[in-house]
Amino acid sequence: MRIKRWLFCAVCFMFVMGIARAEEKEAKNIIPDGGFEEVSERVIGADRYVYECIQKGIGFGQDGPIAILPSNFGQFYGSLEALEGAKLIVVEGTPGKEVHSGKRALFFCGNGGFYFNGEDYKAKTGDVFKACYYVKGQGSIRLILGLINTEGNYYQSVTPKPVSVNSDEWILIEHTLDTSDKPDLSKICVRLEPKGEIYIDDVSLVEEEDQ
């Protein structure tokens, strides 16, 4: 009887430990607030970068003197002049319709890209990342890894081919981003590059486990 009880306790312990380890190994989303549920309200006159963007003809969701940006927005890629007429707007709506899930999504109109904010993610040569996100609209999109070497300099990127988007329904986009041929890698930064009129939601980037 004691042996059976001991075996039962041992099995229960192993089961609980297995669940705990599985939770520990659950991949962390590198993208902060990938569902665009949080917004950042910027006073246009007090935020030099936002002010310059608006002066160059870039539109945000605005409420009088306040510009409403996604909380995970870092900055645009490239010159602001090339983005004249672009729009970056947080939209609200019904899951499965205006948004994929939650209550907010992102709408981008134009030809360009932007970096997500947050600290650069530590990485090493050979790391593989999986990007997943939902989109709808007309245009194209891709997620790009900017690579930073051990000296702290941006030196290369992992750039997949743009994926064509032509759908009024939410569709899933996936990229596998491999750094095996990128020597001296220390960190990555992430940018999204939509073109056209694209709605974006539930952006995820995770590091795949070593096989």
Summarize the structure.
The protein is an alpha+beta fold. The protein has two helices and 14 strands, in the order H-E-H-E-E-E-E-E-E-E-E-E-E-E-E-E.
Commentary on this structure:
- The chain has helices at residues 2-25, 48-55, and strands at 39-43, 59-63, 66-70, 73-76, 87-92, 104-111, 114-116, 121-122, 128-141, 143-149, 154-158, 163-178, 185-192, 195-207.
- The protein has a single domain, classed as Sandwich (Jelly Rolls), CATH 2.60.120.
- The N and C termini lie far apart (42 Å).
- It has 211 residues and is an alpha+beta fold.
- Helices cover 15% and strands 48% of the residues.
- A hairpin with a 2-residue loop joins strand 2 (59-63) and strand 3.
- The strands form 2 sheets. The chain has an 8-stranded mixed β-sheet with strand order 1-3-2-5-6-14-9-12.
- The protein contains 2 helices and 14 strands; from the N terminus they run H-E-H-E-E-E-E-E-E-E-E-E-E-E-E-E.
- Which sequence of strands runs across the widest sheet? 1-3-2-5-6-14-9-12
Rounded to the nearest angstrom, the radius of gyration is 21 Å
Strand fraction equals over 45%
CATH class: Mainly Beta
Order of helices and strands: HEHEEEEEEEEEEEEE
- Tally of alpha and pi helices: 2
Average pLDDT reading: 88
Q: In which range does the helix fraction lie?
A: 10-25%
Shape: globular
Total separate domains: 1
| CATH architectural name | Sandwich
CATH topology: Jelly Rolls
Structural class: alpha+beta
Low-pLDDT residue spans: 6-13, 15-24
Largest sheet: 8 strands, mixed
Compute the separation of the termini in Å.
42 Å
CATH superfamily: Galactose-binding domain-like
Tally of DSSP β-strands: 14
